[in-house]
Amino acid sequence: MSTPVMLLIAFIFIFVWYLSFSASRLDRLHHRVETSWEHLDALLQRRAALALEISHKSDLDAATYLILTESAYVSREESILAREDAERSLSESLKFLREAAAAHDVSIDVSLLDELTILTNKITLAMSIHLEAVSSVEKLRSKLIFRVFRLAGRAKLPTRYSFEEDAL
Questions:
Q1: Which end of the chain lies in a sparser environment, N or C, as judged by fewer CB atoms within 10 Å?
Q2: 10 Å Cβ neighbour count for 7?
Q3: In a domain, 168, yes or no
């Protein structure tokens, strides 16, 4: 075989390897998004359970109790699209509750408040990891080679949820 044919075969081989490598990389990023979301969702479920525990073990007024328990139940039971407002409401309720406890307006078990603080820090970290993973996938999928050769296959573009942008 002649040199140009060998070079063409080598080029095709390298290009096919590059496409395969890129598709594998994208697949790993999609997996990272899924696992980061599962971890974040588990932490959010734990936060809702902790909010219910706080509401049942504290001397809250009726309105605060109702808002806290409703947002916690919706956060635990609904699909993610229905949970967005509940997660935001739960964050605001818990922030208000922490401020009220700091001002000694409400008596809440200190161990529950400590657990809430630790959990909030974990959720903040998990949200940043999830958002970074989503950004990585979006950035990679926006490249021309990924769109032309459909390296993402039928995978859906990862979703950002509005409550992830909120400060806890």
A1: N
A2: 10
A3: no
Establish if 99 belongs to a structural domain. yes
* The length of the chain, given as a count of residues: 168
- Whether 90 contacts 51, CB under 8 Å: yes
Amino acid at 92: E
Rounded to two decimals, the pTM is 0.89
Report how many domains make up the chain: 1
- Please enumerate in sequence order all residues whose Cβ is within 8 A of that of 88, keeping only pairs 6 or more positions apart, or say none: 162, 163, 166
- What is the dihedral sign for C-alpha 77, 81, 87, 89? negative
Domain-located, residue 131: yes
8 Å CB contact between 60 and 106: yes
Residue 118 domain-assigned?
yes
C-alpha 95: how far from chain center: 20
User: What values do phi and psi take at 161, rounded to 5?
Assistant: -100, 145
pLDDT tens, position by position, for the chain (168 residues)? Answer: 799 999 999 999 999 999 999 999 999 999 999 999 999 999 999 999 999 999 999 888 888 899 899 989 998 988 877 788 889 889 999 998 888 888 888 888 899 999 999 999 999 999 999 999 999 999 999 999 999 999 998 889 998 888 877 656
